[in-house]
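Hey,

Quick one before I head out. I ran the complex with D-glutamic acid overnight. Inputs first:
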Amino acid sequence: MESRNIKDYGIGVMDSGVGGLTVLKQLKTICPNEHYLYFGDTKNLPYGEKSKNELIKIAAKVFDFFQQQDVKAVVMACNTTSATVYDELKNDYDFKIYPIIQVVSKVITKDKSLCRIGVMATQATVKSGKYKTELQKYNPNLQVYEQACPLWVPVVEHKITNYDEKEVIESYLTNVLSFKPQKIILGCTHYPYLLNKLSKYADKNLFINPASIFAQYIKDDLQKHNLLSEKNEQHIEYYASSNPEEFKENAELFLKIETLPELIEL
Ligand code: DGL
């Protein structure tokens, strides 16, 4: 019997909800021949308000699901889990794991002119101090200011529009801007959706949406390890742990999806 080539195995992409679609959107463009399995863990959203122990249990269930699906790689398109659980789970699985914070910090710090950087992220990511640790691993002189923005994920995921912009957007941003950063990393995959609002208060070019940097690194690494699929077709499956209808509707903020995600109760 002919055995399956590992190049043809799928790539799992995970996030708590639709935010990770910012990464999938880039990946599917630059790696067009892959089979993607996108998991939106909507049942456990928001991850940013959960403890490390809770997140380890949750992420392990998502990883177990991917393991059953025979994936060749998993993209942690979620800053919060990259910050809190990657180190705990990275040796427990056979597939390659790409954690967004670790990858993006490595790439961004190649620019040695950067000496002050702001990070806007979830409560759990900021609490972990992971961005600071990873960025300073490559450039110890880099000054890093991390700001938690706990209201931003609910605003995006529940499509809330009637909020007080001063309280929700401007207050967090003012703190970061007073640090005088050369760049601000949008350290949560949901945040690029707010870019137009943010650019009312600061130059749009100040913000880094890590999705394309992250996707490019993954492509290069898969290529380096001879893991890119050579099939001339793309296939995407979507899974959600609750309310697939709402996921499909919200997905449109980042990427139009044609099929209703399959409900997988973790
Ligand atoms: N979008 C995820 C991140 O990048 C998690 C957001 C959340 O569920 O709090 O951090």
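The first strand starts at residue 10 and ends at 15.

Talk tomorrow,
K.
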